[in-house]
TrEMBL record:
Keywords: Monooxygenase, Oxidoreductase, Signal. Residues 5-337 form the FAD-binding domain. Residues 1-21 form the signal peptide. This is FAD-dependent monooxygenase. It comes from Streptomyces hintoniae. The lineage of its organism: Bacteria, Bacillati, Actinomycetota, Actinomycetes, Kitasatosporales.
C-alpha cells in the first residue's frame, strides 16, 4: 500500500494532495489547525485577513489538478467575483492610469482567502478521498538518502506516520532546513529580499451599487526613491469590500481609523480614500509584516533525498503586492502531478525533478517581485545590479506603453497573472509595442464611465474637507 503524507492543508498542501492522489492508495494531509467547516479565519493562516487575488494562471492550474470539478465555478457560486484585468479594473501604475479596454484579458478571482481555502479543500477531499488529519509535523523520518515519513504531535500523543512520499507545504514558517539537517542533509541555501512592506487591511460593507464599480488598485512606485505606498479596494463575497493599504520601510500605514483613511487619501491618487470615506467598517484594521521575498533553493541541493518535496510558501514567498503566492503554489503542484503521473511516487529521482520543475514558476515570480523591490529605500538583502537597471528600464517602458497600447497592456497582464512566462514580454510584437510607446493618448485621470463617476461621487464623504 502506497501512502503520501502532506504537511499543511493550506492551498499548496491540498493541491499537492490532489496531485499525488492518483498515484497512491492513501493521502493524509496533516494540519496543526482545527480546520473550520466554513470560510472562516484561522490561526495557522494569519495572512488570510489580507487581500488575496487569485490570478488566472493559478486558477487554471487548480482546475487542471481537479478535472471535472470546476473549482472556478464553485468559487463563483460561493460569491467570488471574476474580474477582467484589462476591462474591469482601475489600475494606477507607476507610469499613470491604465486605460480600460473592450477586451477582457486575463481574469482574476477576487474573494477572501478563507473562501479560496475552504472551497478548494472541500473539492480536493470530495474528488480524491484525501484524509485531512489534525496533527503537527515535528520532524522527518528516514535518512539523508530517503525520507520515509513524518513525526507527528497530536492531542492523543506523539506518533510516526510512514510515507512513500512526504510533501512539505507548511507555509513560510516551515522547519524544513532544520528537519533536513536532522537527517544529515545540508546545503539548503536560503535568500531573502525584504522591502519592509507592512500591509494594513480592513473589511467594509460594500455600499449599494458597488457591484458595478471596478476593483481599484493604486500601485506603489519603487522608482521614486521614496517608500512605496499603495492601496486596493477589492470586492469579496457577502457584498463586502476588502481594503488593503501597503507601505514599504519608512512609509508604513497606520492602524487607527482616521490615519488609515488619511493614508488612503494621500496616495498618488485619492480614489481609495474617497471610496471608503463613508463606508461602514465591519472589522478592525489588521497588520501583516510577513511580506519578504524569501526562497529556499531546494533544486540546488546536491544530494536531495528521495521521497521529499517542498512546495508553496515553504519553498518560496513573494512580496504580496504582486499577488503571486497562491498561483505559484498551484503551478508547483501541477509539476508534482506531471512527474508522479509519469513514473509513480517512488520513481528514482522524482523529488529532485519536482524541485527543478517547481523552480520555474518560482524564478518567474521572484524576478518580477525582486526586480521591483530592490529599488525601495531601505530594502534588505539586495541592491540593484547593472542587469536590474536594464530590466527595469525595459519594464518601465512596457508599462508606459501600456498606458496607451492594448498589446502592451495584455503582455503585462499575461505575465502578472502567471498565464504566461516572462518570455512573453520580449516577443517580437511586444517589443514593437514597447518601441512604439503609447499609441493612444494615456488617460488624463481615473478612467471611469459616467455611471461609475456618479457612484464615486455618491459615496465620497471627503468633498469640501
Ligand atoms: C498579506 C499577504 C497578502 C497576500 N496576497 C496574496 C495575493 O493577493 N495573491 C496570492 O496569490 N498570494 C498572496 N499572498 C501569498 C499567499 O498567502 C501564500 O502564497 C499562500 O498562502 C501559500 O500557501 P501555502 O499553502 O504554501 O501556505 P499557507 O497558506 O501558509 O498554509 C500552510 C499550512 O500549514 C499548516 N502548518 C504549518 N506548520 C505545520 C506543521 N508543523 N504541521 C502541520 N501543519 C502545519 C498551517 O496551519 C497552514 O494551514 C499573500 C500573503 C500575504 C502575507
Amino acid at each position: 500500500m502506497r501512502r503520501a503524507v502532506v504537511i499543511g492543508a493550506g492551498l499548496a498542501g491540498v493541491l499537492a494532495a490532489a496531485a499525488v492522489a492518483p498515484g497512491v492508495d492513501e493521502v493524509v494531509v496533516l494540519d496543526s489547525d482545527e480546520l473550520p467547516d466554513a470560510p472562516a479565519h484561522r490561526r495557522g493562516l494569519p495572512q488570510g485577513r489580507h487581500a488575496h487575488l487569485f490570478m488566472s494562471g493559478g486558477v487554471a492550474a487548480t482546475d487542471a489538478l481537479l478535472p471535472g470539478v470546476d473549482v472556478r465555478r464553485r468559487l463563483l457560486d460561493a460569491g467570488a467575483h471574476e474580474i477582467a484585468a484589462l476591462r474591469g479594473m482601475l489600475v494606477r501604475s507607476t507610469e499613470g492610469w491604465l486605460p480600460r479596454w473592450r477586451h477582457d484579458g486575463p481574469r482574476v478571482l477576487s474573494c477572501s482567502r478563507a473562501l479560496v481555502d475552504w472551497v478548494v479543500r472541500d473539492a480536493v477531499v470530495e474528488a480524491t478521498g484525501a484524509e485531512i488529519r489534525h496533527g503537527k509535523a515535528t520532524g522527518l523520518l528516514g535518512d539523508a538518502g530517503r525520507v520515509r515519513g513524518v513525526r507527528v504531535s497530536a492531542a492523543d500523543g506523539d506518533s510516526e506516520l510512514a510515507a512513500d512520499l512526504v510533501v512539505d507545504a507548511s507555509g513560510r514558517g516551515s522547519r524544513i532546513t532544520r528537519w533536513l539537517e536532522g537527517l544529515g542533509v545540508s546545503g539548503l541555501q536560503e535568500r531573502s529580499v525584504d522591502s519592509g512592506l507592512v500591509n494594513a487591511t480592513r473589511v467594509y460593507r460594500a455600499p449599494a451599487g458597488a457591484d458595478r464599480f471596478p476593483l481599484t488598485v493604486v500601485h506603489a512606485d519603487p522608482y521614486a526613491g521614496l517608500p512605496g505606498r499603495s492601496g486596493m479596494v477589492m470586492p469579496i463575497e457577502g457584498e463586502r469590500w476588502m481594503v488593503s493599504l501597503g507601505g514599504t520601510r519608512g512609509g508604513e500605514p497606520p492602524t487607527d481609523p482616521e490615519g488609515f483613511l488619511r493614508y488612503a487619501l494621500e496616495l498618488p491618487d485619492p480614489i481609495v480614500g474617497r471610496l471608503i470615506s463613508g463606508a461602514e467598517p465591519l472589522t478592525d484594521i489588521h497588520l501583516s509584516r510577513s511580506t519578504s521575498n524569501t526562497r529556499r533553493y531546494a533544486e540546488k541541493v546536491r544530494e536531495w533525498p528521495e521521497g521529499l518535496v517542498v512546495l508553496g510558501d515553504a519553498l518560496a514567498t513573494f512580496n504580496p503586492a504582486y499577488g503571486q503566492g497562491m498561483s505559484v503554489a498551484a503551478l508547483g503542484a501541477q509539476v508534482l502531478a506531471k512527474e508522479t503521473g509519469r513514473g509513480g511516487v517512488t520513481s528514482p529521482g522524482l523529488a529532485r525533478r519536482v524541485q527543478r520543475g517547481a523552480a520555474g514558476p518560482v524564478n518567474a515570480a521572484w524576478a518580477l517581485a525582486v526586480g521591483q523591490d530592490v529599488w525601495y529605500p531601505g530594502v534588505r538583502g539586495a541592491r540593484p545590479r547593472p542587469a536590474d537597471r536594464l530590466v527595469t528600464a525595459y519594464s518601465r517602458r512596457l508599462t508606459k506603453a501600456a498606458t496607451g497600447s492594448y498589446r502592451a497592456g495584455a503582455a503585462l497582464w499575461d505575465v502578472a497573472s502567471l498565464s504566461a512566462g516572462p518570455e512573453r514580454v520580449v516577443r517580437p510584437r511586444t517589443l514593437l509595442s514597447v518601441l512604439n510607446g503609447p499609441l493612444l493618448p494615456p488617460p488624463t485621470g481615473v478612467p471611469l464611465t459616467e455611471s461609475e463617476r456618479k457612484f464615486l461621487n455618491s459615496v465620497d464623504r471627503t468633498e469640501g474637507d
